[in-house]
Specification:
- This protein is of the alpha+beta class.
- The protein has 6 helices and 6 strands.
- A 6-stranded antiparallel β-sheet has the order 1-2-3-4-5-6.
Length: 212
């Protein structure tokens, strides 16, 4: 009986030892606070993107305005020549053209057989008048220079004024005893020479000028 008890005790002891040897000791691991770690990571500073500095006072609207101004502004405009830059040659050419315009207008007149009143209504009062031998003469001056005035009080050709360009043209009208236009002459300068464009009932002819 004692042997059986000893054997059971031995068997129990072996089982106990074997069971203990197969168990793995438990090691308590420290809990990981993922929420705390995640919060700390989210608070870590992120690298900032580099931005180009914009000059003070300059806005996007100003930049757009400058772009529009550049697009609308083509090549630099050329300034018009001032009056001071005008050359004497240019003044002479202008004066000559104006004189030609006056002469052309006078040549377009149709005065033959018109009465004194009709001429007066068309051309105004004559600058100088004269009577003699049954004829009446009227003179109309067309100065080529502002303020110029032919001082002669008799019906005559202003040779000096025409030569200098101070007088563009002179119109001399001759009325017959019936006070109707018998003829008329336009005195002007062509290539430095005084010419007379004379109109009568027979037609018109231009020749070197002579006073009526």
């Amino acid at each position: 009986m004692n042997k059986i008890s000893v054997i059971w005790i031995a068997v129990v002891a072996v089982l106990v030892i074997a069971g203990c040897s197969n168990e793995t000791p438990l090691v308590e691991s420290e809990p990981v606070n993922t929420s705390v770690q995640g919060l700390e990571l989210s608070k870590q500073p992120q690298p900032e993107e580099k931005k180009e500095a914009t000059p003070a006072g300059e806005s996007d609207e100003a930049s757009e305005d400058q772009s529009v101004a550049k697009a609308a502004d083509p090549s630099p405009s050329v300034p018009a020549p001032s009056a001071e830059s005008a050359t004497p040659q240019a003044d002479a050419s202008t004066s000559k053209e104006q004189g030609e315009d006056v002469v052309s207008s006078l040549k377009e007149l149709s005065l033959i057989s018109k009465t004194m009143e009709e001429v007066r209504q068309q051309l105004g009062e004559a600058k100088t008048t004269a009577k003699g031998g049954g004829f009446t003469s009227w003179q109309y001056d067309h100065p080529g220079k502002e303020g110029y005035h032919y001082p002669e009080t008799a019906v005559s050709v202003d040779v000096q004024g025409l030569d200098s360009g101070s007088m563009k043209a002179q119109l001399m009208i001759s009325f017959n005893e019936n006070n109707l236009v018998d003829s008329y002459s336009i005195y002007h300068v062509v290539d430095g020479e005084i010419m007379a464009y004379r109109v009568t009932e027979a037609g018109a002819v231009e020749e070197p000028g002579q006073a009526d």
